[in-house]
Amino acid sequence: MRLFVLITVTLAIFVGPMQVSAQQPVSVAVLPPVVVETRPRAGQTDVDPLLTEISVTFSKNMITEKMWSWVIHTPESFPAIAGEVRYINARTNVLPVRLQPGKTYAIWINSPNGKHNAFRDTDNIPALPYLLVFRTRGN
Hints:
Blueprint: H1 2-15, E1 35-39, E2 53-58, E3 70-72, E4 80-81, E5 86-87, E6 92-98, E7 104-109, E8 130-135
Antiparallel strand pairs: 1-2, 2-6, 3-7, 4-6, 5-6, 7-8
């Protein structure tokens, strides 16, 4: 009985927020885009401070005409922007940056509060928020 209750609660937590209709089958087309790759990798602790671009790649084609939300986690942990943000293809966006040695960076890709959610697929569905955290080597 306890196992059943635990499974039910777990399913309610994971299925509830998705709001997928019972009439609509679960598919890549109807679910939000997700981050499938970042450069540097999330959690990386030896990033070259001379790196000049941070990139994010999504699971679906995105609206690429000036649609992105690189969001500040804290002012101290956001990198200095060093140029024009751009898409290099339908799924990958690049943020030009200047990094400092020995520093931890934390950047939201779309915000968790939903205020900044301009990373959207071609059906205008916002990407799920993603927190990219990494540290440069040095000092």
